[in-house]
Amino acid sequence: MELPALLETTLTGMGYELVAWERAGRGLLRVFIDRPEGHVPADILPDTPAQGGITIDDCVAVSNHLTRLFTVENVDYDRLEVSSPGMDRPLVKPADFVRFAGHAVNIKLRIPVENRKKFSGRLLGIEENKIRLDVEGTVISLDWNNLDSARLKPEF
Q1: HEC profile for 3-63?
Q2: If you classify domain 94-152 with CATH, what class do you get?
Q3: Could you state, in order of their start, the residue ranges of all structural domains in the chain?
Q4: 117 pLDDT band (50/70/90 cuts)?
């Protein structure tokens, strides 16, 4: 099984969401996890509202599980790092653009649109492979296939 599918299947089974993964220098494998929308951890009372966020205990549990899994599956790596995606969470899948509609985002394109590669604004969602963004009161549509990166923009 390919590594992305292995990670996706395993993390989903553990009650987490795979946000992104990357291989870095010196054999480092980084895995970024989050809680699926509406997921309430087992140690919280059932009548508590859904909460997101990843704790250190979550990272430890996932790291321990993946270490054993990678041994069985012969995944080549030297070091494993499991982490929360952070406040500036990357938006990777089309579902992310639906889930985080209404949030402030920073978007970078591969090819400039209107002589710009970088856009900041309020995410309105995604429709028919077009990312809709409110930039200072003007709604623009950006082609999904031209997307280089997208991240939530923390608001305080």
Answers
A1: HHHHHHHHHHHCCCEEEEEEEEHHHEEEEEEECCCCCCCCCCCCCCCCCCCCCHHHHHHHH
A2: mainly beta
A3: 3-83, 94-152
A4: very high
Give the Cα separation of 124 and 102 in Å (integer). 6
Query: What is the secondary structure of 115-146 as a DSSP string?
Result: TEEEEEEEEEEEETTEEEEEETTEEEEEEGGG
Write the pLDDT tens digit of every residue in 60-87: 999 999 999 999 999 999 999 999 999 9
List the Cα angle 119/122/127 in 5-degree steps: 90
% of the chain exceeding 90 in pLDDT: 86
pTM (2 decimals)?
0.81
Rounded to 5°, the CA angle 23-83-148 comes to 55
- Choosing among 2.60.40, 1.10.287, 2.60.120, 3.30.300, the CATH entry for 3-83 is 3.30.300
pLDDT computed for residue 24 by the predictor? 93
